[in-house]
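Minutes, project check-in
Item: structure for the 104-residue chain
Input as provided by the requester:
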Amino acid sequence: MQIPAGEFKAKCLQLMDKVARTREPIVITKRGRPVAKLVPPDDQEPHQPLFGYMGGSAEIRGDIVRAPDLDWSAVTGEEDELYTDLGTAAPSEVREPPRRTRRK
């Protein structure tokens, strides 16, 4: 079946329903020349939605609200030897600047 673009524009929704029902493609023409083809979708399985596709695949172990009681190795100084070759100060040697107090 062929249909001019102007008529397709006016009857688009009805034509889409017809193609879905009859599974017969429709060729859309401009000035008698084919420019597009409306075809029914392939019979494929529906795509799984992206949101939530990993639902149920993770497991919570332990307390997720409170931070663990472990000190980071950068804070304890265990990684200081890694910084000696770089010529930079180790994280345990870096001091925070003094905080300013407000004047009254």
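Outcome recorded: The longest helix spans residues 12-22.
No further action items on this chain.
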